[in-house]
């Protein structure tokens, strides 16, 4: 059987609750597909920061680099200043491990309620390829004359030709592999003219190598509207780091809620491990109550299985989730663990 080194970062809030269910499903599906996971847990997050002041120490980062793949719950806690864990742990991992593709499928499963009247699974089936290492996330900028009436805060968007080219190329490859073969660039090139023009130029340049892929451009403000009233416009979307963050929460909402939205922070070169996590955060408002939906994490486990070259196991997890979702409406409220148990049972039996 194939052995895969897996790092697990449960994190904060509902992170540990949903990760436990993701691992339950992973253990259930692995044997039938001849996989074993050598798991190492990392206690990164709010508790560690309170104890030691550390977010993601160099020594832990070095260990993570030696893993094949990472499963993360969520980070962030009201007891920690905003940004300390988000930047110091999550973004540091994405940047250091060069997760330049943040893959976020937006797919309505049959039987799942969407707030979009009249929309069905055929209307909502896209994948957002969010840039993961650049844009306004880099931390370039700062504060001048803090606390005075003359205070200035700058937060610059960094966009390199290298970074834009590689994510746009990846998005073309994804689009070329899907039946509709359509790629939409979402940006704001009417205002963010420097970065927008770079993305547009690279889209045209790389697009010349993919004549079978139809390309399209939508301003991000209009895109938020079209996600809601014309989701069929979208097949594959490529966009910058911040726009991708925002539109994938809208994507989650139209596809049945944030509790179902999966993602992968992917380094397609394989030079460092990729990291899979739900799109949602640590949800402090419901943490510790067994109310969190673990489905987003379980679908992230399916993406993880695809990434490690176990597509049959990935499809088995997706099928189990899909079957669970079609019955869900009739079942009434279930706890986090009950949902995980039901899906784990389907994949093992
Ligand atoms: P959030 O996604 O944690 O919560 C938004 C809303 O969605 C809340 O009402 C929450 O209860 C609900 N929700 C989220 N996940 C759910 C689930 N699995 N099942 C049911 N309901 C769910 O976003 P937020 O409130 O903006 O942020 C809370 C904290 O999480 C902050 O510290 C933020 O920085 C952090 N955060 C982390 C990540 C990450 O680790 N990838 C992502 C987003 C936010
Ligand atoms: C997400 C989160 C993160 C992001 C934050 C917590 C840094 O919102 O994964 O969507 O903005 O990427
Ligand atoms: Mn987000």
UniProtKB/TrEMBL annotation:
SMART domains assigned: Iso_dh (SM01329)
SUPFAM superfamilies for the chain: Isocitrate/Isopropylmalate dehydrogenase-like
Gene Ontology MF terms in the entry: 3-isopropylmalate dehydrogenase activity
Keywords associated with the record: Manganese, Metal-binding, NAD, Oxidoreductase
EC number: 1.1.1.85
InterPro entries for this protein: ICDH/IPMDH, IsoCit/isopropylmalate_DH_CS, IsoPropMal-DH-like_dom
Pfam families the UniProt entry points to: Iso_dh
Chain ranges of the Isopropylmalate dehydrogenase-like domain: 5-343
Record-given protein name: 3-isopropylmalate dehydrogenase
Lineage of the organism: Bacteria, Bacillati, Actinomycetota, Actinomycetes, Streptosporangiales
């Amino acid at each position: 059987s194939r052995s895969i080194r897996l790092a697990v970062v449960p994190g904060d809030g509902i992170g540990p609750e949903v990760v436990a269910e993701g691992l339950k499903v992973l253990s259930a599906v692995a044997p039938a597909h001849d996989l074993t996971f050598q798991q190492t847990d990392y206690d990164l997050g709010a508790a560690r920061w309170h104890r030691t002041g550390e977010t993601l120490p160099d020594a832990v980062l070095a260990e993570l680099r030696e893993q094949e793949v990472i499963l993360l719950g969520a980070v962030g806690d009201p007891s920690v200043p905003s940004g300390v864990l988000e930047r110091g742990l999550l973004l540091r991992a994405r940047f250091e491990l060069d997760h330049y593709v943040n893959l976020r499928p937006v797919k309505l499963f049959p039987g799942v309620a969407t707030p979009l009247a009249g929309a069905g699974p055929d209307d909502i089936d896209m994948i957002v390829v969010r840039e993961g290492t650049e844009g306004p996330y880099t931390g370039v900028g700062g504060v001048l004359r803090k606390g005075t009436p003359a205070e200035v805060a700058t937060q610059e968007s960094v966009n390199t030709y290298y970074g834009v080219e590689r994510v746009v190329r990846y998005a073309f490859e994804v689009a070329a592999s899907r039946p509709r073969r359509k790629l939409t660039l979402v940006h704001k090139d009417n205002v963010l003219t420097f970065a927008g023009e770079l993305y547009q130029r690279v889209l045209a340049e790389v697009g010349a190598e993919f004549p079978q892929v139809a390309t399209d451009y939508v301003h991000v403000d209009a895109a938020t509207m079209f996600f809601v009233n014309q989701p069929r416009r979208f097949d594959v979307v490529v966009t910058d780091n911040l726009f991708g963050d925002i539109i994938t929460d809208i994507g989650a909402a139209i596809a049945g809620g944030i509790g179902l939205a999966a993602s992968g922070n992917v380094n397609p070169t394989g030079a460092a491990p990729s990291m899979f996590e739900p799109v949602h955060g640590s949800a402090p408002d419901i943490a510790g109550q067994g109310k969190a939906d673990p489905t987003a994490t379980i679908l992230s486990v399916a993406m993880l299985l695809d990434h490690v070259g176990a597509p049959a196991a990935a499809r088995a997890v997706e099928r189990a989730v899909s079957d669970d979702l079609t019955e869900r409406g009739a079942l009434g409220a279930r706890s986090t663990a009950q949902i995980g148990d039901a899906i784990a049972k389907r994949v093992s039996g």
